[in-house]
Design brief:
Immunoglobulin-like; homodimer; six-stranded mixed beta sheet; 2 domains; 5 helices
Chain lengths: 570, 570
């Protein structure tokens, strides 16, 4: 018998490729979450790992794939929930992973199945969405590729993902207990910034125990991005900082911004990219500099005066040694308090002309969310329209679907606070009527909603902070930014209703406003909140319900807490 | 109208006394559990408080009262459960508070109602029974008085309760993660011992941050027991140490032991009382020394070589200033490694002759529990008959009552290990066949069971540790102690079947054995384990089921986790 080798190869290849198409449909992950000691910035502390790692495994998928994550909680006494940041969960609102909003927490010993479709190519992330567990290291990347045969509106040779973060040495429990204390105890600036889970704390600092800090630990060796001279890299950059607004740059290399939060951007070039917690960007970088050396990649904290050292990674030109330090001093980055380049970058982000999602030209409802800092019963809180948000212990998705009206306060928060027109955003918050509440906004299905994020002065004079707001279950059009007080009659005339970018996270700059528009067309219950973890914990968020009547039968796996315990039969 | 004042007084008094009798029937407590920063040994750390306190509020009741504790979990991401240590929960096995055994954990935001009768006067305690939360400070005293008209077989003027403890500066998460790590990380000796929640860490130690340690913090001022010269005090002493076996003494004063774990003891006098985690004693102390000065009360760690300083309290003779230091050096206590006085005290504890509960003269079943230390899959564990116990995530009480046979391993552990008769307890544990399991012993209802706790050498040569074993749902007769290997045919002949004490917690001494007898007459599922918190966490325990068919309808409040989630209707 003779074997036709070329034909066999073709057959084998076609079988393999059929298999790979079949396998592309469902991406099944089995994750175990537990506490382990790690030294991501050389300082040894307890972190939450997924399958032994922080950041956790990257989810790679193709548009249209179904992701299944069987998440086993192996924490001893603590529950967990994971949010798939940027995935809209169309048809699967119960898989959004937001404790108190879309599900009960996952108990120790339980395995919870997250199952959802990634319906759009792009750069996304996942992270814990329960208490302040995100800061304990429970996060990772999601990268969704285009369907076969489709191409991006830009070209590159290689694709890389990194997540930027900040890092605290105190436990999330200590941080949370401090935020709830009277008097208020703030954890302070992060000890480190991290690039793809690696930072570098100065172990020689006085008072640092040698046993808990080892500068030669491989877990904190700098992240290395190795590049081949002349090639172009798509670098997908996400930020999941607890607090820090960041500037990211690669010494001597421009970056062309091509994607934001899963949407194609009309390309523009920057020396440094400003990125806020909850945002993702893709930038193109061509390795077109002197290839005989390496370069620094730098992440720097901006927007807030701070003592946190910059994070450094190595942009390594192959075949130089990846650990060879660049011969130069790392770039020092922009001044922390220079707002204008940050606002300018926000303004520069527009939809790619070939990928414009037409924005509705009018809206049905305008909600002006005034962000203020308040003191309520002696505690420092953040409030939206004088309501400091608290999560209920019965997930809204269940209580709204099942009409458990006692599970949360039924009076909705206001669309605009009384006296908004005379409120002075430039003085120390005078509003003393703030209360805590778990009430929600109920949106009429399929209506178009404008949200105006209005920033203001905090409780400290001459201080207003940057807040990145993240909307679950949606992308929104970013129709405008402005400084000062939003003018209800004039400012909407200046909205960009031609080519606004769609995003899921957007900053409101100090003393400024940001206007968003979205269509309430995704049946479910969706959190909308400042992505600074402590700010949400302190009340800076709210929740939208839309089309709850269209949500199909809820899986029982999301129930079992709060009033959904009532569903237990004896 | 004239008023007959004396008659009015009598009427009022009788109304009041009726009321007080009525109120004595139900003792209703509302507790909120949360994290707070406290400095119980001057070192500031996160602790779990009840209504802002650690130790929590003392429960005072009278025999026959019903205790109701509405426990609100205000931890952010962490569940909780509280065990009522020494209360047998006759008729209320679901109120024992043992996570994984009698209930699901209480979720954040939930309020769980514990309701049970305190059916016997005596000295008891409560504490967290979930993960290692007890060590985070969640504990307190229960004091049950005799019914009106009944008197103790001893007299005293005043009644006081204290709990002895040890204290770690690392969080319980760090401790637990270390115990589960490969390689094993042990937290080491406690930083402090505490008397009624007050210890004294040396803040001047090198490396201790001034901000986190303040020797003048009133939270760590020594506990003061103020006495009136000539009066006799009943001091109720409990131990809830995580690790330490203790010796407690009051300088210059003898103590007469009159109660142990709620049972009257044939009185005997000691200079120092040895007390193991989980035990309670009442001692009588007469303030019969020079009243012009104060005296030291000292708690010292024994049984294990250690670096932990002794705890000091002040035995204050009124009217001396309570903070006046005694003029003497505190007594240094017994040598840590002198076993014989500890064994002698164990042997000295017999039932008060007028309060003997007759012990069954024969038993129906003998279970020999060989305690060994093992390495399983690289982890250091403790095993009982080669089974290192793990808790299931479905409480046994529900799974056994509802026949959820997949919820735990159905093959029971052995009553005696194969090869027991040739096992050498004096050499480094040779048994390599240890496994982890959540299987349980099922006892025939109303039968009499003997338990032999057999100690052995650990994985370190020439080392055997003291383990205090605590049985839930029962008191047992302590019928014998011995050194070396238990002899099945000879040793039972030496049992004390005349006046053995009944207890709920008993030590097994190094290289020794302890024999217990109890009647399996309390329908329910009951944990039996070493009360050293890390030892139970590492597998040193087991569970007994008896009369599950007699348990009445289980409250749904204990369900909702593991396989009892199945009971949720969609």
């Amino acid at each position: 018998m003779t074997i036709n080798l070329p034909l066999l190869c073709v057959l084998l290849l076609s079988i393999l490729s059929v298999n790979s198409i079949v396998e592309a449909r469902i991406r099944h992950h089995r994750w175990e979450v537990k506490y382990e000691f790690k030294s991501p910035d050389c300082f040894r502390k307890l972190v939450i790992t997924i399958n032994g790692r922080t950041p956790g495994p990257t989810i790679r998928a193709q548009q249209g794939d179904t992701i299944i994550v069987d998440l086993k909680n192996s924490l001893v006494t603590e529950n967990v929930a994971i949010h798939w940041h940027g995935i809209r969960q169309i048809g699967t609102p119960w898989a959004d992973g937001t404790e108190g909003v879309t599900q009960c927490p996952i108990l120790p010993g339980d395995t919870f199945r997250y199952m959802f479709v990634v319906d759009r190519a792009g750069t996304y992330m996942y992270h814990a969405h329960y208490g302040m567990q995100r800061e304990a290291g429970l996060y990772g990347s999601i990268r969704v590729a285009l369907p076969d045969g489709e191409v991006e509106p830009f070209s590159y040779d290689y694709d890389r993902s990194i997540i930027l973060n900040d890092w605290y040495h105190k436990s999330t429990y200590e941080q949370a207990a401090g935020l709830s204390s009277v008097p208020f105890v703030w954890v302070g600036d992060p000890q480190s910034l991290m690039i793809q889970g690696r930072g570098r704390f100065n172990c020689s600092k006085p008072g640092v125990e040698a046993a808990s800090c080892n500068a030669t630990n491989p877990e904190c060796s700098p992240y290395v991005l190795t590049v081949v001279p002349g090639k172009t890299y798509r670098l997908r950059i996400g930020s999941l900082t607890a607090l820090a607004a960041l500037s990211f740059e690669i010494e001597g290399h421009n970056m062309t911004v091509v994607e934001a939060d899963g949407h194609y951007v009309q390309p523009f070039t920057v020396k440094n990219l400003f990125i806020y917690s909850g945002e993702t960007y893709s930038v193109l970088i061509t390795a077109n500099q002197d290839p005989s050396r390496n370069y620094w990649a730098v992440s720097k904290m901006v927007s807030r005066n701070n003592t946190t050292p910059n994070a450094l990674a190595i942009f390594n030109y192959y075949p130089n040694h990846p650990k060879r330090s660049p011969p130069t001093v790392p770039p020092s980055g922009p001044f922390w308090n220079d707002i204008s380049p940050r606002v300018n970058q926000s303004l520069a982000i527009k939809s790619h002309p070939n990928y414009i999602h037409p924005v509705p030209q009018t809206s049905d409802r305008v909600i002006i969310l005034l962000n203020t800092q308040n003191r309520i019963n002696g505690s420092v809180k953040w409030s939206i329209n004088n309501v400091s948000f608290t999560l209920p212990h019965t997930p809204y998705l269940v209580s709204l679907k099942q009409n458990l009206l006692d599970s949360f306060e039924q009076t909705p928060p206001p669309d605009v606070i009384d006296g908004y027109h005379t409120y002075d955003i430039n003085t120390v918050a005078p509003n003393v009527n703030a209360t805590t509440s778990n009430s929600v906004y109920r949106l009429k299905f399929n209506t178009t909603v404008d949200i105006i994020l209005q920033n203001a002065n905090t409780m400290t004079s001459n201080n207003s902070e940057t807040h990145p707001w993240h909307l679950h279950g949606h992308d929104f059009w970013v129709v405008g930014y402005g400084s000062g007080k939003f003018n209800v009659s004039e400012d909407p005339k200046k909205y960009n209703l031609v080519d606004p970018i769609m995003k899921n996270t957007v900053p409101v700059h100090p003393y400024g406003w940001t206007a968003l528009r979205f269509v309430a067309d995704n049946p479910g219950v969706w959190a909308f909140h400042c992505h600074i973890e402590s700010h949400f914990y302190m009340g800076m968020g709210t929740v939208f319900e839309e089309g709850i009547e269209k949500v199909t039968k809820l899986p029982s796996s999301i129930m079992g807490c709060g009033d959904t315990k009532r569903f237990i039969r004896p």
